[in-house]
Structure formats: C-alpha cells, structure tokens
Write a structure and sequence with these properties.
With 588 residues, the chain is an alpha/beta fold. It is 46% helix and 13% strand. Among the domains are: 162 residues, 4-Layer Sandwich (Glutamine Phosphoribosylpyrophosphate, subunit 1, domain 1), CATH 3.60.20; 221 residues, HUPs (Rossmann fold), CATH 3.40.50. The strands form four sheets. It has a five-stranded antiparallel beta sheet with strand order 1-2-3-7-8, covered by helices on one side. A five-stranded parallel beta sheet has the order 11-10-9-12-13, sandwiched between helices. A three-stranded antiparallel beta sheet has the order 5-4-6. A hairpin with a 4-residue loop joins strand 2 and strand 3. It is globular.
C-alpha cells in the first residue's frame, strides 16, 4: 500500500489491534487524510507521515512484520513486533552488480528468487541441535538473518549493510529499576483491566473468531475474558489424547462447560500424530524440532474448519513464571551458593565419572524409570551437570539445551555466539527465577513457542493472536516484584487471581501437563524404520554435515534402552528431514 502523499510504500504482515483508536487520534488532531478504506494498514501509513516512524511504532499495539520504503530518503526499513510474534527474514544474495536484497516472512519466498543460492550454516546446525530450533537472528543459510523482536533495520543503496537497533528493548524493560509495589488488590485490578482491553481489541474481526483452550491457566484466562466480553458463546477448540497421562481435554471441557462456550474437541492417537511428520519440513522452512509442533498443527487444522482467527494463551509461562525449571533453578542456585565452587565441580565430576549403566542398576530398586522417560543414570548425569554451574545464566543455558555438546555432532561446526551466554542483557536486580524468565522472553518465546504457533497456524490459513503478549501486559508484569509471579509455592500468582474472577480455582488447580509427545517411545516403535533411513551412517557420510559415529552411538544406545536420547535424536531427524526437503536449493 502507498501512503496518501505517495512518500511511503509498505508490505505488511500482521494486525494492528488499536488502529481504530489511532484513526480517531489522527482525526481529532486534524491530521487524517481522506480515508480510502477501513484497514489498519492505511492508518499505520498515515501515522508514519504524521508522527514519523518511531513514534508511530511506539503507538502500535499488535503483531507485525513491516517493510517500509521511503521514496524521499530512498531507504528501506524492516520492523518486527516487540515480542516476536511475526517473523522477518532478510539478506543479500548474489555478488557485485548482480546482488539483490531479499526479505520476507518465509524463507520459501527468498528461495523462490533466482538469485538465491545460499550455503547451509554449520554453526546454525549446532545451535539447532542444542535448542531444537535455529535461534535468535541466525538463519540456517549463510548471508541471511532474522530480525529480532522489537528491532528495526535500515538499508539504503548508499549504506547496504543493514543498520539495526531496538525500538523496544524487552531485556532492558525486564531489568529496569522498579518503583513502589502496588497492593495485591491494585495489581489484580490493574492486570484485569489491561487484559480486558487487550482481549477486547484482539476479538475485533470481520471473520469467524474462536480460541484454543487447553484447560490450563493461560488459555482459560483468555477464554474467560473473551466470554465475559461476548454476548454469544465463544467457539473454543481442544485436542485430546487417548493416553491418559498426556490428555488435558477433559479439563478443557470442564472449563468450557463452566463458561458456556461452544466447544469442539478432537481426540487423536499415535497414528494421527505421526501422519503429520512428513509435512513438518515444508511447514517450518528451517529445521525445527519442538515435538509439540505436531499437536499444535492438529488443533490449528481442526479450528480452521470453523474459524479464521483464534486467540491463544501463548506468553503466559515466560511472563508470569509458568515453567517448573524457574522454581527448580532458583532452588538449585540457592543450594549451590552455599558450596565452594571447587566442591561443586568435584562432586558433579565424580557422579559423571560413574557409567550411566551402573547408575541405572544401582537406582532401579529405589526409583523405577517411568516408561518413555530418561533412565536414572542418565538423569543423575544431567543433574550433576546442572550442579557444576557457576552462575544462574550457565544453569539456565544447560536447562534449555537438548544437546550438551552439539558441536561434537556437526562436522566443521562450532557454537555461535548467543544471547544466553555471550552477549547477555543487563540483569539489574532480577532474582534467579526472574533472570531465567527474562532470557526465555528474549529467546525461547520468539524462537520456539511463537515460531511453532505461527508456522502451524499459517500452514492452515488460520490467524493466531496472543493477548497475553500485548506489550503493555509485559511492561506491567515486569514492573512488579517476584512475589506477584510466584507465591506460596504457586506459579503465575497474579494471573491466577485474574482467572479466578471467571473460572473457579477447583477447575484449574492441577499439575501442568503441556503438549508432550512420546518421541522416545515412537523411535523404538512406529517411527523406527523412518528414523533408521535418515540416520543411516552411509547417508550421513554422503551428506557431510553430521558425524555418523556420534549419531550412530546415540541411536544404538536409544534402541537398546540404556539411554533415552529421544529429544536429541528428534533434533537430528528434523534437520535430516529438512535437508531432504530443501537440499536442492542449497550449495553443500
């Protein structure tokens, strides 16, 4: 779209939720053009002309990836939303006079250009094996980057190297000094008011709208607010599993029944889940291995049969302290600080010196290994590795790493610099728990959770919106002390208090489950032949990316049952499946 004066040209992916308010602001100030339509894009463009780019960005509430060409200055600006809901890839391809600058929300768009001829980045493979995704601003191909959340990049023919800066710095906001804490009542009412406004804005749609409902705290609070605001039953969607230990569908139905939503659920088995696997590489563009991508796609596919937009509870864990590792990590650091560093290292090394198979036999009579879980010896080695951590940041990186030394598995590979270890954001006065939340908000949330949801929903032409990721909510919760996030042994304290206005506590109080998929068991069963083909040593040697000796050792140990390398092997398999799909557009 062109701006009214013709100065700006935009390509825009996303949604500006407060565009009606911005339209009124422009009109009341006497700056409104003659409107050509009712779109949020036109309002945003008018804002760029009247307020300038950065002031307009500061006023926008929404999710977006923006490419803005300024005819006057002959510069291109690329912008990504504050929390990273929408992706944006960019970079130069070709050389000299033939070089072209490519950008897009999907790598497929860049690959379609005749100039695209990028080599696979080996350090990106290392990072992908470590985390299960290609993190931060890395891309699986050389010469390309991802815009980071809250970042703006400027490119011109006179300055072809992108100039990058943050227009919204989540790390700094989390670490900023806090003012006086409000009372519990004021904090609860403040969050409730913010969330009502965020949900109200995100419910505005001229197409059918619904919500994902797992029955957990995050999705339940979103649906509770939606139903409070709606004059008719909200359409909610849940996915159920026939295996009881993974199934939350009955809890979601109880919440739906209490709120009076129009509820739809889909029960799936192993076969349904496994049938999605061949579609994953094309769906995600880059190697991506969070196994909950499979049920996420299935619930999105089911929802799309009924609605075009679905609200979700994404962001609740990272902003309100939802992951168990935050509590475990803080308790562990409290204990470790009482021990001298050499003693921690010696004790951890001593445990790790005992072969895991011996530990398995010693521990089996005390604690039997649950089906599909890591054996006791493997678990003790992992905990010993945690205990050797000198800092909260080191412990956190270990807890979010699937592979401990992924560079050993990648031929010619090395670990790239990371926000989690090499260029850490300021910590300020954050507790251990809050420090881990801060790092997850900057890395795990956009690179795993939001990537997973965006690609799965876009694959079925469903728009997903996340009210908990309204930047005003993030700024509000980070301005509060830890006790509003974790109190009396319970996570998400403040979010729970808002939820209880709409849903009784008795329907919610239970252990967190999540979208867990039994990958380790599948690889010994129904997926064994599929995996064996990708992990064949001759194939690995011919492709030249992964060390066949390292991979074969893990695969053999996993099949024997002495170890559960399901998560590690799934990362390898998702890279291999991606390579098979996209190998023809790369230069090895």
């Amino acid at each position: 779209m062109s701006s009214a004066s013709g100065r700006f040209e935009v390509v825009f992916n996303g949604e500006i939720y407060n565009h009606l308010k911005l339209r009124r602001d422009l009109e009341e100030a006497g700056h409104a053009p003659v409107w050509r339509g009712t779109s949020d894009t036109e309002v945003m463009m008018a804002g760029f002309e009247v307020w300038g780019i950065e002031e307009t960005l500061a006023r926008l509430e929404g999710m977006f990836a923006i490419a803005l060409w300024d005819r006057e200055t002959r510069t291109l600006k690329l912008v990504r939303d504050r929390l990273g809901e929408k992706p944006l890839y960019y970079g130069w391809q070709g050389k000299g006079r033939d070089a072209v600058f490519l950008f897009g929300s999907e790598l497929k768009a860049l690959q379609a250009h005749p100039a695209f001829n990028a080599r696979i980045r080996r350090d990106a493979i290392v990072a992908m094996l470590r985390h299960g995704h290609v993190p931060e601003d890395l891309v699986i191909y050389e010469g390309l980057r991802k815009l980071r959340p809250g970042e703006i990049a400027e490119i011109s023919l006179e300055a072809p190297e992108p100039k990058r800066k943050l227009y919204w710095d989540g790390g700094a906001i989390a670490a900023a000094p806090r003012g006086p804490a409000p009372s519990d009542e004021d904090a609860i009412e403040g969050l409730n008011t913010l969330l009502l406004d965020a949900v109200s804005q995100e419910m505005m749609s001229d197409v059918p709208l619904g919500a994902f409902l797992s029955g957990g705290i995050d999705s339940s609070v979103v649906v509770g607010l939606m139903q409070h605001l709606s004059k008719k039953p909200v359409h909610t969607f849940s996915i159920g599993f026939h295996e009881a230990r993974y199934n939350e569908a009955q809890f979601a139905k109880e919440v739906a029944d209490h709120l009076g939503t129009h509820h739809t659920e889909l029960y799936v088995g192993d076969t349904d889940l496994r049938d999605v696997i061949p579609r994953l590489p094309h769906m995600y563009d880059e190697p991506f291995a969070d196994s909950s991508q499979i049920p996420t796609f299935l619930v999105a596919e089911m929802a799309r049969e009924h609605v075009t937009v679905a609200l979700s509870g994404d962001g609740g864990d990272e902003l309100f302290c939802g992951y168990d590792r935050y509590v475990h990590g803080q308790k562990m650091m409290d204990k470790l600080r009482g021990l001298p560093g050499p003693l921690r290292s010696l004790g951890g090394a001593a445990i790790r010196a005992i072969p895991e198979t011996w530990l398995n036999k010693l521990m089996e009579s005390i604690r039997a290994t649950p089906q599909g879980k890591e054996p006791n010896g493997q678990r003790l080695h992992r905990l010993a590795n945690y205990a050797m951590s000198a800092t909260t940041e080191e412990l956190h990186q270990k807890m979010v790493s699937v592979w401990r030394f992924p560079e050993d598995a990648v031929l010619g590979g090395s670990s790239p610099p990371s926000i989690l270890a090499d260029h850490l954001p300021s910590r300020g006065d954050l507790s251990d728990m809050e420090r881990m939340m801060q790092l997850d908000m900057l890395a795990y949330l956009p690179d795993d959770i939001l990537c997973k949801v965006d690609r799965a929903t876009m694959a079925v032409a469903l728009e997903s919106r996340a009210p908990l990721l309204d930047h005003r909510v993030a700024e509000f919760i980070w301005a509060l002390p830890e006790r509003f996030k974790y109190r009396d042994g319970k996570s998400k304290w403040l979010l729970r208090q808002v939820l209880y206005k709409y849903v009784p506590a008795a329907l919610i109080e239970r252990p967190k489950m999540g979208f867990e998929v039994p990958i380790g068991l599948w690889l010994r069963g129904g997926l064994r032949d599929w995996a064996q083909a990708f992990l064949d040593p001759d194939r690995l040697r011919r492709e030249g990316y992964l060390d066949e000796a390292v991979i074969t050792r893990l695969w053999s140990q996993h099949l024997l049952g002495s170890h559960n390398w399901g998560a590690q092997l799934w990362n390898v398999l998702m890279f291999q499946a991606w390579l098979e799909t996209y190998g023809d557009v790369t230069s090895a």
